[in-house]
């Protein structure tokens, strides 16, 4: 069983400068390494497929395929639900675990401080022109489809509800592999598509996006992850700040960005937003009468 850490093993020859670039990619971005072909790894590292294979063998693997599998295992272990909560717990101050003490205030302070820091960094990095362009595209679209998996789908549902309340037709989508096939036909040529992947752009999300690009007018990806090569220059990317080693989750900035876009849409057409919300309120009152 190969070592899951793609570093040179004792007794193996020293790596050349090109081979070190291959090893560095696997070490620093195991997700990208695991989900790229040998040709893509070679392009990312400015080497060749032969160099990638040679580096893998020097590191103790049977070849590129086994080294990719090792990187995939590292990603699976680091991004599991247990690993994520473990990372957040490790970011809490040591006093939060004092025995026989009520440390709820310490925990709340750490999480809320982390969340506030994320929101400040989001504000510092958001490009006003990008938000304006995105809001304009949503308003002019036939419909805005919002895709997400897991927690991201819950955020997609919220986003669609709020879009509807400012007069923009919206539909939440989800699904991977075969179930994703049911979502694709719902996307029309005059539709905007939003991909919500707050933490990572997993292969299932990447594949969905690639196919959806054949149908949607344009696609916006919201994620702290960098775009995979297959999507570069094909989608609009709104990058969220990294949540590495923080006590707050990546969902904080995703929810906040949804609210930013809703506010910008409402600002552009306040009459439409107010009229739609007033109508919803009237319907609520009618239902409350029963």
Keywords:
single chain, 290 residues, alpha/beta, Arc Repressor Mutant, subunit A, Rossmann fold, 5-stranded parallel sheet, 8% strand
Gyration radius, rounded? 23 Å
The CATH architecture of the largest domain can be given as 3-Layer(aba) Sandwich
Q: What is the 3D form?
A: globular
CATH topology of the largest domain: Rossmann fold
Plain-language structure description:
By secondary structure, the protein is an alpha/beta fold. It has two domains: 17-78, Arc Repressor Mutant, subunit A (Orthogonal Bundle); 115-288, Glucose-6-phosphate isomerase like protein, domain 1 (Rossmann fold). The chain has twelve helices and five strands. The protein has a five-stranded parallel β-sheet with strand order 2-1-3-4-5, sandwiched between helices. Helix 9 links the parallel strand 1 and strand 2. The longest helix has 22 residues, at 104-125. The protein is globular. Residues 1-20 are annotated as: Disordered. GO terms for molecular function: carbohydrate derivative binding; DNA binding; DNA-binding transcription factor activity.
């Amino acid at each position: 069983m190969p070592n899951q850490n793609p570093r040179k093993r004792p007794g193996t020859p020293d790596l050349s400068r090109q081979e070190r670039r291959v090893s560095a990619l696997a070490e620093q971005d195991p997700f990208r390494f695991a989900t790229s072909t040998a040709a893509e790894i070679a392009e990312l590292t400015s080497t060749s497929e032969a160099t990638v294979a040679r580096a893998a063998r020097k590191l103790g693997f049977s070849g590129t395929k086994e080294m990719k599998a090792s990187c995939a295992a590292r990603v699976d272990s680091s991004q599991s639900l247990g690993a994520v909560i473990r990372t957040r717990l490790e970011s809490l101050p040591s006093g939060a675990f004092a025995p026989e003490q009520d440390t709820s205030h310490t925990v709340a302070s750490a999480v809320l401080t982390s969340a506030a820091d994320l929101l400040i960094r989001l504000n510092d990095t958001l490009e006003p022109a990008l938000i304006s362009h995105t809001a304009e595209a949503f308003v002019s679209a036939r419909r805005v489809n919002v895709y997400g998996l897991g927690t991201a789908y819950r955020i997609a549902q919220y986003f669609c509800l709020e879009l509807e309340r400012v007069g923009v037709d919206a539909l939440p989508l989800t699904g991977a592999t075969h179930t994703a096939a049911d979502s694709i036909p719902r996307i029309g040529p005059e539709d905007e598509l939003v991909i919500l992947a707050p933490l990572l752009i997993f292969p299932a999300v990447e594949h969905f996006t690639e196919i959806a690009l054949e149908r949607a007018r344009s696609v916006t990806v919201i994620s702290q992850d960098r775009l995979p090569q297959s999507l570069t220059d094909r989608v609009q990317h709104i990058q969220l700040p990294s949540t590495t080693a923080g006590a707050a989750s990546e969902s904080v900035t995703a929810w906040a960005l949804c609210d930013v876009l809703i506010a910008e849409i409402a600002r552009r057409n306040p009459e439409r937003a107010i009229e739609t919300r007033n109508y919803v309120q009237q319907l609520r009152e009618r239902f409350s009468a029963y």
